[in-house]
Amino acid sequence: MVSSQVMNIFLHTIYSGNIGEIENAIKYVCGSAISQNVTSDEVHVSIKDLPAQMYTLPRNKIVTQFSESTNYVFDGEKQSLSENDGRQDLYAFIHRLNQIYSLRKNDEDAEMRTLIDQQVVGFMDRLVFTDSKQKPVALEEFVHQTMQELFREIEYQAFFHYDGSFVLFVSHYIYKYILRTSFVPQPSEFLLEAYIEQHYGKERQTLKKIFPEIERRLDIQFDSLDINLFSLFFSTLRYTRKSKDIDGLIIAHGFATASSIANVCNRMLGESIFTSFDMPIEASIHDISTKVEEYVRENGTVKGLVILIDMGSLNMIYDLLKKTVAVPILCMDQLGTLMALEIGNMMLQGTPLTEIAERMKESITPNIQLFEPEKAQKKAIITTCFTGIGTAIQIQKMLSECLEGLLEVAFFPMEYSELTTNGVPASISQHYNLLGIIGTDDPLIPETEFVYLENIISGENAQKMAEIFGADLDENGMKIVNDRMVKNFSLIRVLDSLTILDTQKIMSIIEELIVTLEERLALKLTNPRKIGLYVHISCMVERLIRQVEITEFADLEQFVFTHQREIRVIKDAVSVLETIYSVQIPLPEICYIHNILFLD
């Protein structure tokens, strides 16, 4: 096992001799480590094992930061990182796509695309935002630099324009799921394969140009799953490159700093206004000048260029550029997201460079606050269920029918576990006005309205629904919504939508079960609580038949010990379901039923 610190030193040391010098150093390191681990099956190589001359050899100025928890494992057959395999979150994403396709494959293509896009954008944002919080290791930084160069070449040659954050996502994906993971079997099937071949032709053509070059430069091999997923990822690049009077560049020092700012601005403006250059901390003004000259030459900029930079001598950069660049240039430092947004908005409106310069002189003076008018955000509702995304999709479908023609709302079906673990995704919270969450269990998201599905069915949440939609619908509109909910959210229709079971049969069994529980536990259940049991137990039986039961419950042993009498009664009462449907109800499922009965 080799520490990342040792790998970092080997990667950045400048060797005066040939490959033999590196080979001898590696042999020395291994010998030193083995001599200190003679009784162990594992050999741990650390900085103290390096030969003395390694500490004095010159190194590259750009020293990659490393993660202290990352070690490299060499076992004679394969090399991998000693972290847990990272493909599990990828396969969870694939599982959600399969569920969406299974449930909605007969819907209109636009509806299917919307649901798929929501999952894809959410996955991409999570990968970029999560991995960007960690310091990049040497291999990760190399992949990112290689991807930046490649995508710029393709953009210039084929007139494709890629968002800087998208390039960062591609780099993270390759590093995390291809280079960093040892072999993991692929999911048994990917249901969208034929659908992608039919509906994502343009994206697949783009991949034919890009993938061979990525494989050549990084010495990797993409499989069929990667090709299908990248077709979905590329479909999110919806910024159309219109004929602009002025081009925009954002240049910042650091890993993905410029890319992140450009990504936010381009998304909020709805068009790819800015191209980003992420420069190393040690980059000089000559390096920046060279990058700009290449951009102007290869991108065909003729009408003007706005350059936003984070720091550096603006006068010196401008003096270098005006000698070699024959287009009007407006340079500004003190780069920030708000500043870039305002300038990008002016560029969209076709504002001349001279006017942009005058306006920004007024805005950037000290002690002056510039407030940008808020852009009206689309409204959104999240639907959720702890039994999985399938139920959340069905709830979304019924709600959508209730609001059709009255209010334009984007629905985001999400798994309950994902909401409780990660909260509301940034792709929703930053770009939508979230009206509320509707589902079977409250994920306890701060400052967000939640409505229980059973309360909609029982009609006891009319006031809360009015609070959610009241600001956007008049009295007549709310009446229409309430009437539709009475029709769409009758108990029979809800169970028909949520399960494939015989609705009348399962309702009859649950009715008797509720009577038994009330008698044996001395309970008087309210209507919403009874409806909650109907919905939960119906979904539970279907999950058990499909063998996707819930297997986790917080502090299970302690909970069962504390409530052992009630657990015994519930287990005995629901045993009738095990007999009729030939299933086994696990203990965590019994505990969830207990909470529906007793928790407020």
TrEMBL record:
Q: Which InterPro entries match?
A: PRD, PRD_sf, PTS_EIIA_man-typ, PTS_EIIA_man-typ_sf
Sorted alphabetically, the Gene Ontology cellular component annotations on this record are: membrane
Note the SUPFAM superfamilies from the entry.
Answer: PTS system fructose IIA component-like, PTS-regulatory domain, PRD
MF terms in GO? DNA binding; transferase activity
Could you tell me what this protein is called? Answer: Sigma-54 dependent DNA-binding transcriptional regulator
Organism for this UniProt entry: Enterococcus gallinarum
- Superkingdom, according to UniProt? Bacteria
- Residue ranges occupied by any PRD domain in the UniProt entry: 134-244, 501-600
